[in-house]
Amino acid sequence: MINYTLKQLYSFESVIRLGGFTTASKELHITQPAVYMQVQQLQESIGAKLFDINGKKISPTFVGKKIYKTAIETINTLETSKLEINEILNPDSGHLQIAVATTANSFISALLSKFKKEFPKMTFYIDVTNRHALLDNLKNNNADLVIMGEPPKDIPLISQAFMKNPLIAIAHPQNNLLNKKKVTIKDLSQETLLTREVGSGTRITIERFTGLNFNSDIQINSNEAIVEAVQAGLGVGFVSMHSVSLQLKNKIIKELNVDPFPIIRQWHIVHHADAELSPIARRFKQYVIDNTKVGEYL
């Protein structure tokens, strides 16, 4: 009957991965003879040769490769379990994986900065990306939390609106439309219209509310690029107010007063319905909700 211990698996995995008993002993913080003894006992328990030594090179045999794979899977499971248990016992720490729409990056980064000061032991990874990638994150449950505009209807989600997301039309300060008392959709249709790529939430919303046909061959995949194009006088752009507050304040660009803008949407904090949020993810979700207000700007 084959029996092996966790110490034996840890030792064998380290020896094979690092290619030697001495380097493995340093990583494991035990003596080199102790590592060798653990590997020898594992080999005796299996009843087959697990590795070959050729000079200074150590390589696994066929059976050794099988045990090495088992060791990796076992160690990964144990280390993941340790992290999960640590998060439960120490809810002020833990790791947070967030996916954020590009237009939400500015205020979410500010919220994360304040949250980090309250919970300095936590770590996080933030993926600032487009709607297509956000949907992939939700479908595959790759992120703890997703910050986005309109959530999809075809994925089982838990979603909560937490703040207004005003969509506005912007123009170069010298654009002639700014001299008109009343700008119409017909006026806009005579301009070069700059918006996000086909399938983006911003573009879908504008088309639905205005009926505008984006017949320009110009498609831009970031709000920063749209703002730069507007600043260069290339055309009229459509962006979330949150992404251009500084530029508006400094009068680098100006907001066009045209009905039905601003189009008011909501920001949502979302996760897959089957996901069990970690303590730190639950804390951050509540923090976002408590520090913003539905129906108001940040």
Helix content: 40-55%
CATH fold description of the largest domain? D-Maltodextrin-Binding Protein, domain 2
Structural class: alpha/beta
* Count of folded domains: 3
Q: Could you name the CATH homologous superfamily of the largest domain?
A: Periplasmic binding protein-like II
Number of helices: 11
Shape: elongated
The residue-averaged pLDDT reads 88
- Rounded to the nearest angstrom, the radius of gyration is 28 Å
Low-confidence stretches: none
The CATH architecture of the largest domain comes to 3-Layer(aba) Sandwich
H/E element sequence: HHHEEHEHEHEEHEHHEHEEH
Task: Indicate the CATH class of the largest domain.
Answer: Alpha Beta
The major beta sheet can be summarized as: 8 strands, mixed
Instruction: Please report the total strand number as a whole number.
Output: 10
* End-to-end separation: 65 Å
